[in-house]
Amino acid sequence: MIDSNLIENIYKEDRRSIARAISIVETNNSFTSEYLKEIHKKVGNAYRIGITGPPGAGKSTITNQLTKFYRKQNKKVGIIAVDPTSPFTGGALLGDRVRMTDIGMDSGVFIRSMATRGSLGGLSKKAIDAADVLDAAGFDLIIFETVGVGQSELDIAQAADTTIVVLVPESGDSVQAMKAGLMEIADFFVLNKSDRPGSQQAYTALQTILMIKDHDENSWLPNIIKSVASENSGIDDIANEIERHKSYMREKNRFQSKRDHQAKVRIKEIVEHKLKDELWSETGENSLISSLEKVVLGNFSPYLIAEEIIENFKNRI
Amino acid sequence: MIDSNLIENIYKEDRRSIARAISIVETNNSFTSEYLKEIHKKVGNAYRIGITGPPGAGKSTITNQLTKFYRKQNKKVGIIAVDPTSPFTGGALLGDRVRMTDIGMDSGVFIRSMATRGSLGGLSKKAIDAADVLDAAGFDLIIFETVGVGQSELDIAQAADTTIVVLVPESGDSVQAMKAGLMEIADFFVLNKSDRPGSQQAYTALQTILMIKDHDENSWLPNIIKSVASENSGIDDIANEIERHKSYMREKNRFQSKRDHQAKVRIKEIVEHKLKDELWSETGENSLISSLEKVVLGNFSPYLIAEEIIENFKNRI
């Protein structure tokens, strides 16, 4: 049974209820779908921004400054931060410590960090589900902050209406970003720490790479915005560029077709998860275990046994 | 139709055929299972070593030195290297450039690098499939080299008979490794670059963490081996520790039960992949597309539509 009080309290922006709902969503049990189906009618009003890029580019700082910018306009901001590299980049997990003293006490801001460790996949599903909770709770903007080093992080970034790729003027960073698939997903770039030496060369290199990409006069050309986020410089330019992209998307139904595409990707992921749950339910697991006796004997390929399990599954459902 | 010449040539250790077979396996088309079922009877003789750890710990260097060590014993070595962070650690992709000039020309060594970018998941499946090809081709040792920052990299490391976690004496590195789940998978640790300052403290810290872990007198206690791989120091200690772990595993049937467990994990992954392929086959994709019209209308939750697609799928199979 879903708790209708919890849902009512989400709509009332009760922080503890929002936190609990996101935890339910993360657990991904049988209630998850019920809650998300229930709140769906309130979902769709928040504008979703994806911020990604390599470790150390300053994504957390930009997220914080951008949040403060929007708070001055009295907009409510939800932040979903995912960083799979944090154990080894040694930094504050998702910049949380900085964040907490900075914007964490503001009741118009809700921050959720997601660990990838120990998660049995489905990270982008969880992040998007959590965004739906914040959306239903009436947050005006939702920022997904991810480190662009894994497929699921790219998936999350692409679940946004506007995706920002943050780079720093390190030598070759733009070339690395291209290799990492970040060029394809950027609606615009932020060249952060642009007071560093080599900034102008990095800008030119990035511009050159962008010019090589195929485009026609009707297509959106990603801009490059310079910033020094730690000094709050360039944040209004970033906000303006988000607005410009938003206006562009609103023309010619682009916004709707992007959201339709995202819905399609998301439904696929939900279907796969649900089917996996059914597959390894008690009966499925038992059939697997009994098939495994054959592997112990060593005469059968795992591929052969997999085929047998699929046949069993098909007969069962 | 599978190419029986190709299979014969794999058994004859023809390098081009091995490379082609691994490419087929990576493509993951309908032939993949057929080839892997066919070669299965020749699989199971290679000893599999997993080497993982944070970026910059020296995994490639250790892999290279260990390979040279085994080559002196006339053992053939296959290397499967996976590095999802490489675009942003700026290094040689999987240490390939170093490797190529060092061991790459040796006909008793086969190196395969796997990109994670653009890969639609299933990385650990591909890596293990590729290891089967090398195993069938008669390689005595297979080394999986992965960066320990993602779930699939941990999965690969765990597909080995002996898993080595490489750390460096940076402050707090062992604590980070614990957070990252590396403590659970290590059969032993290598403290590389142990000529650096702070090495003894790092050793003690790691030892302390290991002592906290639950263990009884019968359980395997992970050792810590010091090395300076770039100077070829400690490599024989690493090889000895691999032998010691191998002997331990061979006692009391532990080796077989570990391989059984790995087979189970692998079969699960194969089943999920095959089912996903069927799910999104032409008919499945069409049913998805028609369901999507409802999303465009905005009245239905993605979770509701997902349930409908699953029903359709069940009726179809």
| Topology, number of strands of chain A | 7
The CATH class name of the largest domain in chain A reads: Alpha Beta
| CATH level 3 topology of the largest domain in chain A | Rossmann fold
Q: Give the amount of beta strand of chain A, in percent.
A: 5-15%
Largest interface: A-B, 65 and 65 residues
Structural class of chain A: alpha/beta
> What order do the SSEs of chain A take from the amino end to the carboxyl end, as H and E?
HHHEHEHHEHEHEHHEHEHHHH
What's the number of domains of chain A?
Answer: 2
Structural features, described:
The structure is a homodimer of 317-residue chains. With 317 residues, chain A is α/β, with parallel strands linked by helices. Chain A folds into 2 domains: 41-254, 3-Layer(aba) Sandwich (Rossmann fold); 280-316. Helices cover 56% and strands 12% of the residues of chain A. The first copy, chain A, is built from 15 helices and 7 strands. The first copy, chain A, has helices spanning 4-11, 15-27, 30-39, 59-72, 86-89, 96-102, 123-136, 151-158, 173-179, 182-185, 199-212, 235-250, 254-279, 282-297, 302-316, and strands at residues 47-53, 77-82, 109-114, 141-147, 162-167, 188-191, 224-226. A 7-stranded parallel beta sheet of chain A has the order 3-2-4-1-5-6-7, sandwiched between helices. In chain A, helix 11 (199-212) links the parallel strand 6 (188-191) and strand 7. The longest helix of chain A is centred in the last third of the chain and has 26 residues, at 254-279. The radius of gyration of chain A is 22 Å and the shape is globular. The mean pLDDT of chain A is 82. Chains A and B meet through helix 3, helix 9, helix 13, helix 14 and helix 15 of A and helix 3, helix 9, helix 13, helix 14 and helix 15 of B.
